[in-house]
Amino acid sequence: MHLRRRQRFMTAGVAAVATALSLAACSSSSSSSAPSGGSTSSAPAGGSSSSGAALSGTLNGSGSTFQLTFQQAAIQAFKSVQPGMTVNYGGGGSGKGRTDLSSNVVQFAGSDSTIPAAEESNFKGKTVLYFPVLLGPISVAYNLSGVSTLKLTPDVIANIFQGKITSWNNSAITALNPGVTLPSTPISVAVRSDSSGTTQNFSLFLEKAAPSTWTLGSSSTIKWPSTARAGNGNGGVAQIVKTTPGAIGYVDYADAKATGLSSAEVKNKSGNYVAPSTDSATAAADSTTVAPDLTFHAVWASGAQAYPITYQSWVLVYESQSSSNTAKMLQAYIGYLLGAGQQLLPGLGYAPLPASLDNMAKAQLSKIGM
Amino acid sequence: MSTVTQADPAAPAGSAHPLDQRRPLGDRGFAILALASGLLVLVILVLIAITTTQQASSWFTTEGWKIFTNNWDPAANQFGALSFIYGTIITAIIAIVMAVPVSVGIALLLTEVVPYRWSRPIVYVIDLLAVIPSVVWGLWGILVFAPWIQHIYAHIGNVVQGVPVLGSLFGPPTSGASFFTAGIILAFMITPIVTSLSREVIATVPAIDKEGAYALGATRLEMIRGAVWPHSQGGVVGAVLLGLGRAMGETIAVALVIGSAAVITPHLFAPGYNMAAVIANQFGEASGVFRAALMGIGVLLFVITIIVNIVARTIVDRSARRKRGA
Question: Is the ipTM of this complex over 0.85?
Answer without folding.
Answer: no
